Amino acid sequence: MAVSPTTCFGPNAEMSILETNQYLRSELEKCKQNFRDLTEKFLTSKATAYSLANHLQKYKCEECKDLIKSVLEEELQFQFLQGSGKEVPLWEVYKYCLKWGSPSW
């Protein structure tokens, strides 16, 4: 036989639990949105670095050779795992974000 929270702790305790639950759900949504925003900024930064490295590579900048190599190699190694279980290159995820907005993970 289940006992309601009102019986054990009084009517104020039940309201407090509901308010706490609502507050925590609200905070979770804020955190999820912050995560999506930061992920989008991260993807934008990575794609920008990749694009700049490609441009520098065209100019055969000897001073930047090591930097270009590290950025382009990192880009090839970094893959983003989407909900579908499929690995997608970061650049493709970035293009998706530009076209359709941030994916919901």
Automatic annotation (TrEMBL):
Domain of life: Eukaryota
Record InterPro entries: NBPF
Protein name as catalogued: Uncharacterized protein
Origin species: Macaca mulatta (Rhesus macaque)
